[in-house]
Amino acid sequence: MKTLKKSHESDTMSNRIVHISVQLFSNEELARQVTEECQLLDIMVTVLLYMMESCLIKSELQDEENSLHVVVNCGEALLKNNTYWPLVSDFINILSHQSVAKKFLEDHGLLVTWMNFVSFFQGMNLNKRELNEHVEFESQTYYAAFAAELEACAQPMWGLLSHCKVRETQEYTRNVVRYCLEALQDWFDAINFVDEPAPNQVTFHLPLHRYFAMFLSKAVKCQELDLDTILPDQEMLMKLMIHPLQIQASLSEIHSNMWVRNGLQIKGQAMTYVQSHFCNSMIDPDIYLLQVCASRLDPDYFISSVFERFKVVDLLTMASQHQNTVLDSEHERSMLEGALTFLVLLLSLRLHLGMTDDEILRAEMVAQLCMNDRTHSSLLDLIPENPNPKSGIIPGSLSFESVLSAVADFKAPVFEPGGSMQQGMYTPKAEVWDKEFDPVMVILRTVYRRDVQSAMDRYTAFLKQSGKFPGNPWPPYKKRTPLHPSYRGLIKLLHCKTLHIVLFTLLYKILMDHQNLSEHVLCMVLYLIELGLENSPEQESDEEESVGGQERCHDSWFPGSNLISNMRHFINYVRVRVPETAPEVKREPPASTSSDGLASSQSSRRKSLQRENSGTAQVFSLVAERRKKFQEIINRNTSEANQVVRPKTSMKWSAPGATPQLTTAILEVKESILSLLIKLHHKLSGKQNSYYPPWLDDVDVLIHPEIPRYSHGDGMTAVERILLKAAVQSRLNKRIIEEICRKVTPPVPPKKISSAEKKTLDKEERRQKARERQQKLLAEFASRQKSFMETAMDVESPDADVAMEVATSEQHVSEAIYDCVICGQSGPSTEDRPTGLVVLLQASSVLGQCRNSTEPKRLPTTEEEQIYPWDTCAALHDVRLTTLQRYFKDSSCLQAVSIGWEGGVYVQTCGHTLHIDCHKSYMESLRNDQVLQGFSVDKGEFTCPLCRQFANSVLPCYPGNNMERSVWQSHSNKCMQDLVQEVEDLQEQLGTFPVSISSETNLSKEMESVMKDIKSTTQKKYTDYSKTPGSPDNDFLFMYSVARTNLELELVHRGGNLCSGGASTAGKRSCLNQLFHVLAMHMRLYSIDSAYNPWRKLTQPLQDKNSELVSEELPEVPVLYRDVSSLLLIQILTMPQPLHREHFTCIIKVLFTLLYTQALAALSVKCSTEDRMAWKESGSLKKNTSSGEKSWEVLLSHVISELSKGKIYDEGETEELAVVNVDSVECYLQQFCLPFLRITSLLQHHLFGGDLPSCQEDEEFTILASCLGLLPSFQSAHQFTSASCLDWPVPAFDMISQWCSELASFADRHPDQVKALLIQEPKWDLPRLLQLPENYNTIFQYYHRKTCSVCTKVPKDPAVCLVCGTFVCLKGLCCKQQSYCECVLHSQNCGAGTGIFLLINASVIIIIRGHRFCLWGSVYLDAHGEEDRDLRRGKPLYICKERYKVLEQQWVSHTFDHINKRWGPHYNGL
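Predicted structure:
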């Protein structure tokens, strides 16, 4: 023990001790032997006692000066660091053995010592209410105090209780109770306590009270002990109830903000006291003890004590004004609510008064589920378990699961479009809401007051949804389990005059609209009345009592104590004490009454007996009542009576200076509880005569009063239910209710009605004006809001079919109008003041991850499974470019392909525009604003000022007409030759760009700067492919590839084809039009030497064939090796903008002829030699027919004969087409051409507007071809061939011969490469993440022991990339290169800055995006649909396919930045 106290690392040490001791003491045989032979129990208890004695201080509870009680000091390290823990845990451990526990319970000396030990904790951590200024230092000692009580007092108590389960163990209970009471008596003596607790103090720690309570409960529940034989006398009970009651009142004070100057920690204490791990060792025993006291003490005494403790005595007067000497008026209402709520709790809870364990578990579960839907693990945590493992209710036990399935439905994890991940939740079944929702239990178990409201809101929603009640319901009244006979006395509380007077007074005050009353007060008052009607006292019957009532009517208010008869009792006059300013003083009291404030006088008899005594109910003082009863009780205990001297009453009641001048007035009331209820019904409904007794129409109501229509509803329903119950229980009540309803008195008018009415009229007028103002404002906002809603609200829905047009759709609008979201002005984008789109530029390698297999790759989970990136799209394009560069001229190679499959730049926008100068000042303000943002302003990052979407650049909008496109829609009648010539001429005028570049306008500057941004978005290695670094060809290639990347990605987002049609998927969010303008402006800076202009090669047969062979340098890339989509972008982007539609169509037609020839060439290489010969023959026969140029057979035979001239077919066989028939060839050609048609259609859609047609998959080719203008007139489908789209600018056979001859001459030099370079169009599947195994354990077992390939160690934090399956060390310094950790490095190499990693030891996924990272969540959930982050709970986890789909979707659509909100910088340390 001493070592423990001195040790600095008590934690490590205690863990080591416990590891040994737990093995020694877990064996019952050994434990018993040690106890018997070595007095282990004595040693343990004594050591604990000594240990605590080292940190005792004098208790300041109650009587500070003379207190003899000592308590532990919670600030000491011993308690703060839980140093006592190993000893206590061993003690609990050996008490779990029955034989040892018996020994303990039989040994009186030990029990005395133990109670002594427990009393050190009694009253620890005393709180004193700060009344003047805020406490300077908020002590956090309460953690230590609560932990100590739970560990050192409650846990051993539960251990002992587990052995007191049968009748034979009665003796043990008697022993514990006896020594507990002795210890309590010593404690009361030590603190000098008689009957008044000291004001403004509270301690939450009363372990002796709780020992006493729990053993009592056990005695009645399990041991069949007679409660009265072990209860102390009345006086002791009165003392016992004071401190637990003080805690309940203090809870209410804390929630009413009366302790606010004590800081937040006092709220923390109030919350810990009711929190699920503590409640059944704290608040439950306290309330049970109060229930026991209430059932045995005089009810009037108990009720008046409650209102006195809650400080609302002065409020309970019939007068409209009062002065409260102990409470500020702003706290009165919540304290009154607190007092009534406490009474309801006290009278309705049955946790220790007769409920079985399963019923308790069910009630707890329903209460938690009603507050909120819960996950399985949080339910396990929130249901207070019996802290002792042998008790039977173990979370996860059978009873837990069966009760859960009985009361709740499982809601599978859902995914909100905003990306927030939901867990699998349990939600209450409809019948639970209907029958079992218990607001009382909810109030008892709520840590935060807002949870009560949340439960009510959910209840309201259920009633609305199920159509049971449309309005705002009141908490439903729930029938209770019957009381155990030992506690029947509790019902006396409901049938005592004091309570009835309070209820009457409150009903009256509510009816008269006195201040500081609320609906909640009324609700609780009605609840108490209903409880009283449900639980009638057993003795006298109601009817006979009504006759012989005269003698009992001694205190002038009510004749008897039975609520049922008191309800109908009319009270005519009430004498009240009021301040002299009160309105009541004006009235003259009737001459017949004279009474000093506290004397008794007769009250009126009931009207039904027509005995009119004009008596007056006197001023009822709860305090005086309580004092009187207290004195009576004390005098009854004569044995002690002579010693009892009344202590000086605490200051608050006896300071006459503080009391205002009161005078007595007499109020005319003439009401009974029943009449007040009926008038309240009128008041609540706002209608006269709204209450009509239901039994007059339907007598059955009285026979079967349990009518479902009364079970849910608002205040009116509650009143109706109560009146019905009153009528059912007594004929007289029924008659009187009918009488009152016949008379129908108008509701008592509130005072000063005129001014109130005037106020409401003024209010109406003011409201009307406000409404008009609002309408005007709303009209102004409407247009802006509409555009905002369209763009901002669907981050995740790429299907919003909103066309790109920002301007209105009339044809004649000359300029596009943009709204600036910063300055709010609208206007066109101009040279001097350009407007820009808010865009996010990000490098992307998503396209490069496409594979040409439909089955996605699996994540390797064994050594055999490995993933090689050879078959990815990026790898194949890379190989192709390097091969071309080996054999052909570099500048020509760089125009024959596109790059950007890896590290391409993707541009996306939220659709909002701003002036570029406004943006600059916005960035400036962000730079000065030092708030920690999730982004880096220095890197140009910002969030859109309107929708807060992440962005990092602004794309200037090209000035000019947004609708020009529609002008060129009509097909022109110029012939193909003229158009071809025009296109060539336009390409020659290189310098002429409508925005002349020579003059440095703001617009051109911005366009240059955005181009720089685009370049710097991706890494250098992804932009430099030329053999001569920095060559202009590089830039040229990069720029048209950016366009290609964006078109290809849009295609991927549409699912890889254009069948769905419609506007651009991103709707307003597409910025391709603006992007093309920026790219075109820069592309036109590079002149293409007219000799090498590919356009010529496509449209004119070359005259001189020999010139090429002479040049000694590498030849140009043959036209048949060039990527047609790239050629298209080069042609379009080097034309002067805006492009005419007829020129666009002309370019497509020409390129389609080349594409078709490439398809034929590829086909000819694929088929076998025999087939080839056959096609050659059959085609040449038809060669001279009129439609020869439009028949694929003719063209194919021509291609074959031309290519045969070279050594192309000599090489070995290639893989053959399976069946070579007409249909399969047609199908092959269409599939070959489709990717080009898709890209072209998208391009046309963005340049010229117009929707894409939707179609079936099998007719995609024809629809797109006709949409692009390739199909002259649409023929019927069955005779359609792809060749009919051809439109040759010059005779086909000449062109084909020329193109093939280039290949033939290349074949002579490098026969091995000819076929490899022919463009084969593999079918790329959409990009997918790796497939994960069903069970997480599979991944965990393989990876958590796997060694890193770089440093060959087992990493501390292993992670695996979900895109390519690479295994990396997270945060591992071992694999760091140039200050970059491995994950960051990998994210740059694999995803051009985007990495998706699964952390093996935590089951969560982490996203790295550039310099930021975020935790995404987990795709593995347990059987209850919950994550297990860090694998803390150790549950088996299974893949959640929906979540994985969401992750993949966000990766493909590049929306990580928009959807995930919690980003932070990683400083390259991941």
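Summary: The mean pLDDT is 80.
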